[in-house]
Amino acid sequence: MRIFITGGTGFIGSSLVRHLRLENHEVRVLARSKQAVKKVRSLDAVPVPGDITESGPWQDDVPLANTVVHCAALVSDWGRRRDYKRVNVDGTANILDAIKNWGGDFLHISSIAVHGFRPGVYNENSPVRRGGHPYCDSKAAAEQLVDKAVAEGLKASIVRIATAYGPGDPHFIKRLLEQAESGRIFIIGRGNQPSNLIYIDDVTEGLVTIIKQGCLPGERYMLSNPLAPDILNAVEYALALLELNVRIKRVPLMIARGIALLQESKGHLTGNRPSFTHYAVMASGNVCTYSTEITSRKLGWSPKTSIEEGFKRTISWYKMLKSIE
Question: What CA–CA distances, in Å, run from 82 to 52, 61, 124?
Fold first, then answer.
């Protein structure tokens, strides 16, 4: 099978590329820089020079694939609204423009963030609820573009992914250690909120299963791990593996919101990333549960990696990385 992937050098995308190449699929990956070209080649895939935010010759390569997987996105809790729109919304429009009147499968990688992090239980059929943060809103807008393309005949499915972690993770471990360096780690609320963590191999297996089964027009999937621990237990376990004795401080949700508002206002003036952001507070401070029951039934998929095993692998990777540095 010939597969075209955007965002193939990112955390989730590169894991998917690596797995597909091990199964001998022909994988072509959009690469916007020399560094990206080098990484794509290291994954034994074929780089296609181009930028998802700009129209160009790369778009001629897309419809030659049997399946297109759109992973490219600006994923961050801090940034300018126009940048999220340019990458997540306009970039999605550009990839969709490349496959008009095309008969292949399109898999759009989305996020649980489209639900806006209002407290509640969500599943594959839950509608998007824009939360006011530009990342949440841009991912919701991207889904709407895909829905429009489906209405016009595109065979496209959407998969919403929870908090992926594992070796190569640019977010969870990195930010945990950033806080640990200050001598304390902040937990929003009581810490009993679901962590919604899912190990990267389980995410990849879910994506590969969808690709092999074929995309169904308008179908939505959810990849999360319902057995993941709450945030407090996850942080305590990670600190124990890292052999860090760090004080954990609980911050009430309303106070955390106020701190985030002040720090973000300062960040907009100075250009420095705040340690507290509105997105991080809402994502970790509210009790949001994501059911994968429908996905598991339709795909025959379920997460296999326990939090203990996943954290051990991730921490081992991190320690090896630090020893090399």
Answer: 15, 27, 28
pTM across the whole model: 0.94
DSSP 63: G
Among 118, 111, 75, which residue's Cα sits nearest to residue 289?
A: 118
> End-to-end alpha-carbon separation of the chain, Å?
38
* Residues contacting 295, CB < 8 A, separation 6+: 124, 206, 221, 222, 223, 301
pLDDT digits (tens, 9 = 90+) for 42-90: 999 999 999 999 999 999 999 999 999 999 999 999 899 999 999 999 9
DSSP 8-state code for residue 167: T
Domains and CATH numbers, the chain: 2-166+196-225+289-305 (3.40.50.720)
pLDDT digits (tens, 9 = 90+) for 111-145: 999 998 899 999 999 999 877 899 999 999 999 99
